[in-house]
Amino acid sequence: MGDLLAGRNILIMGVRNKWSIAWGIAQAAYKEGANIIYTYLGEREKAELEKLTEGMGTLHAFPCDVTSDEDIEKLFDWVKSEFGVLHGLVHAIAFARSEDLQDSFLNTSREGFKIALDISAYSLVAVCRHAAPLMTEGGSIITLTYRGSVKVTPGYNVMGVAKAALEASVRYAAYELGGKNIRVNSLSAGPIKTLSAKGVKNFSDILKVVEERAPLKRNVTLEDLGKTAVYLLSDLSSGVTGEVIYVDSGYNNMG
Ligand SMILES: CCCCCCc1ccc(Oc2ccc(Oc3cccc(O)n3)cc2)c(O)c1
């Protein structure tokens, strides 16, 4: 047990089950003494959270559908009234319609494009706007991204466009919040078998390629991601903001 995050209130948005990257981050932050607050989408995710957090003390959780400004407002009103101050936030939420994650990118519909960008990119902007006033002692905000934002990954399609918008949003949010000592960064994870990954065609192909070609010759684990998230959430990364940190076994540096 470390104390890198002792006494810090950290809001984690996006735990769906034990395979979730957000759950790997929650476990690592908990081990470093953080006081974790969760948001969930529906009753199924709430039940999963209750199961996952058994034996970890009181479960602090609140519902939030990030497509609703009212939900986001209610969430932060509740966090303010229950905890007063927030020190960290993990945004691990994204969505695109599965038909937009299959073959032709050019066939992405206007509605599908809007949905992907609203949930996967705009939601970070709204969350930063509401979290910042609670980060009165400074803070660290991290979101999850993927290499498909900067390099074409067949099948990732509109999600790659959404992640490009997300990464640019991280830079602009970091610029505006730096003066309040609030840092905003993205963690670019290598492919991991999550519930979301099931929605991306060609996903399974890429796991094998990483294992064969990446410098570390293995895929990353939830533990790998959790440790880097603790670094970004803690004072160890005090000089880092507006950045994309790759945790992908070095794959992104291959030719
Ligand atoms: C061909 C790309 C292989 C590597 C993809 C790695 C990856 C896996 C999962 C990722 O997160 C999501 C999140 C939501 C998402 O949209 C979904 C997920 C399931 C069902 C569905 O209808 N949409 C797709 C990917 C992600 O951003 C990146």
TrEMBL record:
<protein>
    <recommendedName>
        <fullName>Enoyl-[acyl-carrier-protein] reductase [NADH]</fullName>
        <ecNumber>1.3.1.9</ecNumber>
    </recommendedName>
</protein>
<keyword id="KW-0275">Fatty acid biosynthesis</keyword>
<keyword id="KW-0443">Lipid metabolism</keyword>
<dbReference type="InterPro" id="IPR036291">
    <property type="entry name" value="NAD(P)-bd_dom_sf"/>
</dbReference>
<feature type="binding site">
    <location>
        <begin position="65"/>
        <end position="66"/>
    </location>
    <ligand>
        <name>NAD(+)</name>
    </ligand>
</feature>
<feature type="binding site">
    <location>
        <position position="14"/>
    </location>
    <ligand>
        <name>NAD(+)</name>
    </ligand>
</feature>
<keyword id="KW-0560">Oxidoreductase</keyword>
<dbReference type="InterPro" id="IPR014358">
    <property type="entry name" value="Enoyl-ACP_Rdtase_NADH"/>
</dbReference>
<keyword id="KW-0520">NAD</keyword>
<feature type="active site" description="Proton acceptor">
    <location>
        <position position="146"/>
    </location>
</feature>
<feature type="binding site">
    <location>
        <position position="96"/>
    </location>
    <ligand>
        <name>substrate</name>
    </ligand>
</feature>
<dbReference type="GO" id="GO:0006633">
    <property type="term" value="P:fatty acid biosynthetic process"/>
</dbReference>
<feature type="active site" description="Proton acceptor">
    <location>
        <position position="156"/>
    </location>
</feature>
<feature type="binding site">
    <location>
        <position position="93"/>
    </location>
    <ligand>
        <name>NAD(+)</name>
    </ligand>
</feature>
<dbReference type="GO" id="GO:0004318">
    <property type="term" value="F:enoyl-[acyl-carrier-protein] reductase (NADH) activity"/>
</dbReference>
<comment type="similarity">
    <text>Belongs to the short-chain dehydrogenases/reductases (SDR) family. FabI subfamily.</text>
</comment>
<dbReference type="InterPro" id="IPR002347">
    <property type="entry name" value="SDR_fam"/>
</dbReference>
<feature type="binding site">
    <location>
        <position position="163"/>
    </location>
    <ligand>
        <name>NAD(+)</name>
    </ligand>
</feature>
<keyword id="KW-0444">Lipid biosynthesis</keyword>
<comment type="pathway">
    <text>Lipid metabolism; fatty acid biosynthesis.</text>
</comment>
<feature type="binding site">
    <location>
        <begin position="192"/>
        <end position="196"/>
    </location>
    <ligand>
        <name>NAD(+)</name>
    </ligand>
</feature>
<keyword id="KW-0276">Fatty acid metabolism</keyword>
<feature type="binding site">
    <location>
        <begin position="20"/>
        <end position="21"/>
    </location>
    <ligand>
        <name>NAD(+)</name>
    </ligand>
</feature>
<dbReference type="Pfam" id="PF13561">
    <property type="entry name" value="adh_short_C2"/>
</dbReference>
